[in-house]
Amino acid sequence: MSKVKTYIQSVLDIVKSRNPGEKEFFQAVQEVLESLEPVLERHPKYQDQKILERITEPERVIMFRVPWLDDKGQIQINRGFRVQMNSAIGPYKGGLRFHPSVNVGILKFLAFEQVFKNSLTTLPMGGGKGGSDFDPKGKSDNEVMRFCQSFMTELCKHIGANTDVPAGDIGVGGREIGYLFGQYKRIINEFTGVLTGKAVKWGGSLIRPEATGYGCVFFAQNMLATRGDSIKGKICTVSGSGNVAQYTVEKINQLGGKCVTLSDSSGTIYDPAGIDAEKLAWVMELKNVRRGRIREYADKFKGSQYLDGKRPWGIKCDCAFPSATQNEISEEDAKTLVKNGCKLVSEGANMPTEPGGVEVFLQSKILYGPGKAANAGGVAVSGLEMAQNAQHTNWTREEVERRLKEIMDAIHTQVKTTAEEYGMPGNYVVGANIAGFVKVADAMIDQGLV
Fold first, then answer.
1. Same fold, 60-190 and 211-374
2. Is 129 among the residues known to form the active site?
3. Which fold has domain 60-190?
């Protein structure tokens, strides 16, 4: 084993011993660190400065109690978290997730990924992530409001427009951002860009809801262009049915592709005729307004079917867009996708493919865009929202989408050329990890031992 490999393994051993049971965090760290071997061989300064040991340790982890009253007058208690991972290139930036599965290990994994994703956007943003084990599903608007106000009463002590700027994530949409912002404004007595994903009428940016999905498709279009191809005419499978999935479908439709699946935690709908604009509008109403289950789609639209308890990866496709949650594509799923002729996977979710699945995609030489590059559009437009807030202005829809496309084009170029520079052309995983790492690591060295 080379000296660099031995060093990387020693850091992984430290991370594992210091973070017992946090398998998602360790998985994310392992994937990044193992791909950094060539850059560490070429630049010993990163080992000398112990950058790996420092970059895998959060700058700050905040955990707090969130008491709130439900509609029956009963006291409920949840846990709140904020992981402030790295601020070397800008204020902490990353979403808030409200879901029963939330724990500190999952948030550390998300914050760690966010550091490199934000670095790739070319915008000055550090990495963070937060949330709660609160489940907004089945709660009334008043219950969600009371929870959000209690949550922000504590979180407001640790965030600010130049310190840490949270956004939405799973379970945190426009409704939750509104309640959170209102409570922050009430306590701090400032109308400032402390949260992104706000409504356009009071400081939000056009294209923000669409940004992750649109950006993921722009990145896919860039990958296909390297082989003289495009989205047009492609059969696409999309998982999830929330914000990211919805706008992934919308942009694929606009570029001439055909999406045939959506899913939620209960199962998948398969519509061979395609989920066109009219059907998508119905899904948006179902999910965003009525907060119903995707199985209702099969009852509404003839010719479609509901696959109970299944994910979309057994359905033949040209392109796959995992847009639901972490580790939703297993090694077997990846093999099935490749066997069925899938040419491209572009990740709208964070780390949706298990390590064995990633290996299958890389070995098969299909176009594989890892989440930290492919889904960076959401945080990129959050950065653009911060810029608009700082300037007290609003850009047009066309201006924001143009900037989003330019950022996704720049990310693709950066990732592609970095992979080539380190002798692994076409390996977007290595390209994304090294490109994201170098910018942050150099900033950490410049700023001294902090």
1. yes
2. yes
3. Rossmann fold (3.40.50)
Arch. (CATH architecture) of 211-374: 3-Layer(aba) Sandwich (3.40)
Residue 155: name the closest of 74, 91, 79 by CA.
79
Catalytic-labelled residue, pool 93, 108, 117, 129: 129
Tell me the domain boundaries of the chain: 3-55, 60-190, 211-374
CA–CA separation, 113 and 184 (whole Å): 27
* Radius of gyration, alpha carbons of the chain: 21
> What is the token pair recorded at 135?
């489940």
Half-sphere exposure of 323 (CA within 13 A, CB side): 36
Q: pLDDT in tens for each of the 450 residues of the chain?
A: 799 999 999 999 999 999 999 999 999 999 999 999 999 999 999 999 999 999 999 999 999 999 999 999 999 999 999 999 999 999 999 999 999 999 999 999 999 999 999 999 989 999 999 999 999 999 999 999 999 999 999 999 999 999 999 999 989 999 999 999 999 999 999 999 999 999 999 999 999 999 999 999 999 999 999 999 999 999 999 999 999 999 999 999 999 999 999 999 999 999 999 999 999 999 999 998 898 999 999 999 999 999 999 999 999 999 999 999 999 999 999 999 999 999 999 999 999 999 999 999 999 999 999 999 999 999 999 999 999 999 999 999 999 999 999 999 999 999 999 999 999 999 999 999 999 999 999 999 999 999
CB atoms within 10 A of CB 447: 11
Q: How far apart are the C-alpha atoms of 407 and 429, rounded to whole Å?
A: 18
